[in-house]
Amino acid sequence: MTTLSTSKYFKAHSVQDAIALAKAHTNFIFLAGGTDAMVNKQQGTLEANTLIDISDINELNQITSNDEQLIVGSMNTLHQIASHHIVATRFPALREAALSVATPVIRRSATIGGNLLCENRCSFYNQSEWWREAVGYCLKCNGDICIATGGKKNCFSRFVSDTAPVLIALQASATISDGNTSKQILLENLYSGDGVNPHSKSNEQLLIDIRIPFQPSHVVFRKLRPRKSLDFTSLSTAVALYPNQIRVVIGGVDPQPVLLTFDGTHPHDDVIAQCVKKPRIVDNDFYSRKYRKEMIGHFIRESLSQLSNMKF
Ligand SMILES: Cc1cc2nc3c(=O)[nH]c(=O)nc-3n(C[C@H](O)[C@H](O)[C@H](O)COP(=O)(O)OP(=O)(O)OC[C@H]3O[C@@H](n4cnc5c(N)ncnc54)[C@H](O)[C@@H]3O)c2cc1C
Ligand code: SF4
Predict the structure, then answer these.
(1) Ligand of minimum distance to the alpha carbon of 284
(2) Is the CB of 232 within 6 Å of ligand 1?
């Protein structure tokens, strides 16, 4: 595996342009803010040698709304989203999640599209090339076993986007385009559950926008990490209360965001027990598996307690 390779750089000016460039190159990535992709490229875990910059595509840079939903173009930065008046008033948990990502400077480049499609992480994988070579590589970097689990044939790298749990709790959908047609999918269906290839869309498909329905709901977001100033998540939870439903989404622990739904009167102790049980957690983070499992229980209990005072 090579650490760094010479890159070709293209700037796309329309969705069709970007997808045509993608179809003409085999080893490419779309480049949004570059805050995840360029770090991975530097670290040698991303081998793409063609960069297709999508930052100049107008269609991806807008935020609009109608009576039913807020439509956020995928190239909007986390700073722009956190500063938007509709996000602040209607979706404060999304604002909180966006503001929990990285640092103020990074959030001015980091986009919502890139956040939803950032790479999964693992303490045995996000290492230098020589470190990974010394331990013999793993399933996610051309090796043949999972080191974190001592030899299993599945990868349990962690899904780390902080905005995804809140957006899934809010029942958001994503618009995906292949240049000729666009389709809407529920955001949770953007993820495969496979730690090696965590996204279900094909490489050539562009994420156009995210649509968040205006519905009566209250959402509580929680994030666990060693340092509040900078670190990626070790556990992110979003708990949404609707008039007749509770939606819980757990990130930072399993290869995909884990969604659980309950009717509004479901006993809280059982909600918590199911939330602790469902994610596939292995020891591949700064915090131990046992501690993160315990923290899921605490976060969900606290969130449910906070939501129990909310009125519609
Ligand atoms: C120090 C540091 C701390 C960080 N902390 C956090 C954190 O706490 N939480 C967190 O979630 N992230 C964190 N990140 C990761 C990253 O900054 C964010 O996830 C960011 O939102 C990624 O957006 P981007 O625009 O920079 O994506 P890029 O790096 O440009 O792209 C990321 C991936 O998404 C794909 N992509 C982007 N947009 C599209 C699109 N429209 N269509 C198709 N594919 C697309 C790219 O091809 C690439 O594979 C951190 C990064 C750093 C360097
Ligand atoms: S979970 Fe296992 S296979 Fe996946 S990145 Fe970590 S060590 Fe590699």
Answers:
(1) 2
(2) yes
Q: How far is the CA of 74 from the centre of ligand 2 (A)?
A: 29
For residue 268, count other CB atoms closer than 10 A to its CB: 14
CA–CA gap between residue 129 and residue 260 (Å, rounded): 37
Among 221, 174, 219, 224, which Cα is nearest to 199's? 174
Whose alpha carbon is nearest atom 27 of ligand 1? 114
Residue type (1 letter), 114: G
Q: Which one of 126, 146, 197, 286 would you pick to mutate in the ligand 2 pocket, going by the greatest count of ligand atoms within 8 A of its CB? A: 146
Sheet holding 206-213, edge to edge: 63-65, 69-73, 206-213, 173-177, 182-186
Does ligand 1 have an atom closer than 6 angstroms to the CB of 167? no
How close is the Cα of 22 to the center of ligand 2, in Å? 28
How far is residue 125 from each of residues 136, 139, 207, 297, measured CA to CA in Å? Answer: 11, 9, 26, 27
Tell me how far apart the alpha carbons of residues 306 and 311 are, in angstroms, rounded to a whole number: 11
Q: What is the pLDDT along the chain (312 residues), one digit of tens a residue?
A: 334 456 899 999 999 999 999 999 989 999 999 999 999 999 999 989 999 999 999 999 999 999 999 999 999 999 999 999 999 999 999 999 999 999 999 999 999 999 999 999 999 999 999 999 998 899 999 899 999 999 888 999 999 999 999 999 999 999 999 989 999 999 999 999 999 999 999 999 999 999 999 999 999 999 999 998 889 999 999 999 999 999 999 999 999 999 999 999 999 999 999 999 999 999 999 999 999 999 999 999 999 999 998 988
- How far apart (Å, rounded) are the C-alpha atoms in residues 216 and 230? 32
Ligand 2: centre distance to CA 164 (Å)? 22
* 206 CB near ligand 1 (under 6 Å): yes
Cα of 138 from ligand 2 centre, angstroms: 6
Q: Is the CB of 207 under 6 A from ligand 1?
A: yes
